[in-house]
Design goal:
TIM Barrel; eight-stranded parallel barrel; ten-stranded mixed sheet; 51 strands; 30% strand; 4 domains; alpha+beta; single chain
Length: 854
Amino acid sequence: MISYKSLFFINLVIFLSLAFSQTKTDKVFVDNGILKWSDSQKEVALFGVNYSTPFAHSYRSIKKLGLSHKKAIDLDVSQFARLELEAYRIHVWDREVSDSLGNLLQNEHLDLLDYLIYRLKEKNIYTILTPIAWWGTGWPEPDLQTPGFSSKNSKSELITKPAARKAQANYLTQFLNHTNKYTDMSYKDDPDIIAFEIINEPGHPADTAMVTEYINEMAAVFRDQGVTKPIYYNISQNWSADQAAAVYKADIDGISFQWYPTGLVKNSELTGNYLAHVDHYPVPKINDAKFNNKTRMVYEFDAADVAQSVMYPAMARSFREAGMQWATMFCYDPTFLAAFNTEYNTHYVNLVYTPQKAISLMIAANVFRSLKTYQEFPSYPQNTQFNDFTISYVQNLSQLNNGEKFYYSSSTSSQPKNPEKLRHIAGYGSSELVRTNARGAYFIDKIAKNTWRLELYPDVAKLKNPFGRNSLDSKVRVLLNNSSSFTLNLPGLNKSFFLFPVTEKGKSSVIDNGVVSIKPGVYIISNKEWQSLEGLSFGYRNISLIEYPVYPFSRTGEYVINHSPNQVADKNIWKPTFQIISDSPVDTAILFIKQPGWRGFRPVPLNHVEKDIYAKEIKEGIHNGFIEYCLYFRTVDGEITYPAKIKKNPNAWDYYGDQTWKLKILPENASFSLFNPADDLENLIFPGFWGKFRLNSSVIWDQKQNPWYNLELFDFRQQVDDFTFQIELDDKADLVNMSDFSFIEFEINPANSTVKEFKFQLINSAYEVIEKDITISADSRLIRIPLKEFSIKEFVLLPRPYPHFLPYYFKTNAGKLSEDSKKLCFIQIQIPFKNKMESIDRLSLQFNKIRLIK
């Protein structure tokens, strides 16, 4: 008979054996709510991206373009490594890899996922898989018919229907045990797949007990298959306290969050300072041990529709402050599709096509790794410099400067902290180390004594709004195989040095004056002459010495991008500026201008300023009124006039084009329009009112053909406290000197405005506000607000962020801010609802142009 003492030791051996087995296969574990590395016991902090080439629109589009999915994956994973990303997450489109009963389909989608995971492992990038997405596979196209079990059930039915649960359990079992032929490991056993998230953005029924039951049932499937890795479940989608409690009471190890601080799908670029939206990530306070003992991850995030390169480091800082230990941006654009940005038009990040945002993402990865879990920070603007990082909206700059690394997303005047210890430079624009006219990213890494590896990416030309309705038939950006000049001031590098091309496989050449002109590619720069790569190595982030993740160039085509101001004051200087992109060199560029009543155009030769930029300062003929103009240029392939795109000179007898650009020439003491209802409707931003009432936003015309903005709120169904909307001012205010103006002015139409009071706020880039409470009466028409000193006031965060528990108002507590340059950013109009909703039938407000008055 076995004694109790013997049983104790047998159980102890079994326990230790299991524990040892877990530490052998699992790279991470959860300790009192903190995710830690099994080997070092240190806190985990992993930052990266979502990326979906194996599935849905990406898969179909790459196939439609006749390109290789595996080459696409090779290219993009190499970029992940170059950007120092260490995390990959995807919600698997289960509809594409399962049948109606949840059986796993061995098809190309699954094969590509296997291949992607294999390539990620080669770059030491860790993975979290979310096996169930539920979503259809169409977006942004119509959904296709797919065999998977999700296509038969709503999101909520995945939780409430026994048959749907059975299919999920079957699918999860087969998914976890699927053997990746490239790694020869199952998903459950692959140590670099460090965790699983059960389902993407679940749709919960009202029955919270059923929610907890569902989570436990699905988690049990993982455990029954021998999974000892952390299991996560979403807590932020459609947040409510009751649903959150149902999640954190379940038998899971972690909870997953999202963050879309600037909303989604505006269909145009958001302009202005949006750093207030990412100041902090205040997870609701919950005093419950079951909540606090779970690790936290961010499965998706992005500052959607924002093209600036300042948001990601601020978000990374706020994530760490909130206790997040994993954060993956949604969604990295495959390079093969990034010229079109069709996959998710509200998101746009790719190293080659959005170099400044990509460098900013790289800096954010370093922010995330360097900060402690739950480390606290002050509020904006005191948090724009922290540790070794700097964020500046005015300069559109994210920067890392820690001695070993010097990274910057825009030109910077900062001195590197310790040049002698410097090993890695990544940038866009110029710095104290690099002077360049390149319009792409570059990386400079020290690989030997006085020897550096320079990796230059192509120039990028911005053709149009990348956040609009996009198509594979129309590019939003193109790559240019231009030469760029570099003046290098690298530690240890002589003014006279050797340049050895790696990707072009040329011969070493001597650079005498420290200035070199190079095309995109990889180069060795050294005091020593290298004629081959023998004796050199790189290997940083598992990147090889010759690795260069850029797709080969094809013909660019022909484009003209007009960067000219569209209005100027009477008798001022007008500087029309154009970017002419052509596969053939331009030998002549002429501006043709015409004033009303002229029969023909007056030619004005343009100066070739640099690369593909042509410009001229013009003062003659700049008088009150307007000018029509067009651009004519010649190459060896012929002549053409833009914007009509007619292959003739505009003064030719048979020129038939009637398309021109127009320049407004305003009187010297004219008002300046900040909002014109006829032109600026796309600059309006509304809160997400999600069925609480209906809205009509339109332009109407009075009898004198003057435009009026018309806002109507009606069909109220829920109580709300206010309705606040925002007018983005774009870069209009950059064209004027604010000190020249005394008032901001607009007219109200009291006859057609049932709103009787509202708050008007003019907000600048330092989050200072000019505020006035407006009361409308029968005889109030002209509203004139003095442009006195800006002061600190709270304002509404618009667009409204996801998740919904994030703050409604923002107010800096900084006092006067020390921005070097302040810009006008937003106008906000807040309509309070003091009555009960039952007594409100319809609210309306009409006003005309909002303008600055001298």
